[in-house]
Amino acid sequence: MPKETLPGERRVALVPDVVRRLERGHEILIETGAGEAAGIPDGLFTDAGASIGDPWSGDVVLKVAVPGEADIAHLSSETVLIGFLAPLTNGEGIQAIAATGATAFAMEAIPRISRAQSMDALSSQATVAGYRAALIGAQELGRFYPMLMTAAGTIPPAQVLILGAGVAGLQAIATARRLGAVVTAFDVRSAVKEQVQSLGARFLEVEAAADAEAAGGYARELTDEEQEAQRRALEDQIAKSDVVITTALVPGRAAPKLVTAAAVGRMKPGAVIVDLAGEAGGNCELSQPGETIVTDGAVHITAPLNLPSSMAEHASQLYARNVSSLLELMSGEEGALNLDFDDEIIQGACITRGGEIVHEGARQAVGAR
Predict the structure, then answer these.
(1) Residue among 118, 123, 190, 288 flagged as catalytic
(2) pLDDT tens for each residue of 308-318
(3) Average per-residue pLDDT in the chain?
């Protein structure tokens, strides 16, 4: 397991608890200082049974962030690479990985089937992002979240709107509710209504965008007409909200613009927008990825990047368990690597193999360059 080289990436692909489980059938090599940014010194890894050494010499290389040029230079046809690879948007990087001959598996390409739930790194990291987004909203807002009854009078609860009720959105709902806010949520997939209501939030019905669910439980991309009708319907609720948290993403596509500049202009001074789609361009027209801005109307808009990295310890724990589950599927007797490409999970997650790009979405991304 090498040290992450992407600026700002603090997560790590293995943690000591997972090393203990894996080392019974595997030899674990950790690069010096790989876990320091996540609060895991080398000593904890060695105590768990790992060795400090050259991580690129192993049969399997585990990473978190998309590998850069320096990382890819270490790969060979003998390497099995596992990590986030952004196969639908990183055409150049995928081509470079394929050119090394490495067999690469993308954690975000693991099929969303019940047998693969323990490997679902997108969901585990989205849980971290949703939780953190709710806290950022509370921190940026200059008001209380809960209703307070004091001798000086009653403070009404904050109104929080969550756009997108996937894993991140549901965690944001749960966290904002625990903090005492009144929460409303919207999603184009009507199937999530019961989940939203089970967390104590109100589901916002928008007729123009009902039932836009695609394969795998993701939202499909709306037509231009559907998007415009949706934006108009959301404006009134956005204007009434103290905090808006946006989490809407369509795999391989730019994030849909759910919050228009006009909607921001109707929000009250001091209101907050936390845009979790910043890495895909943002759900708010005014978002500046990686920045926090204050509009002329005193609305705070923040679009944090790589939010799970800000909670590196627990994000790493969750990710390491996902990776461990995948490795167990790939391992035969006594820990020997056994890649069964007839297995739906292994086949679906494989991006490059034998010098070729074998994932259809990745091939399309390369062709679109």
Answers:
(1) 123
(2) 999 999 999 99
(3) 92
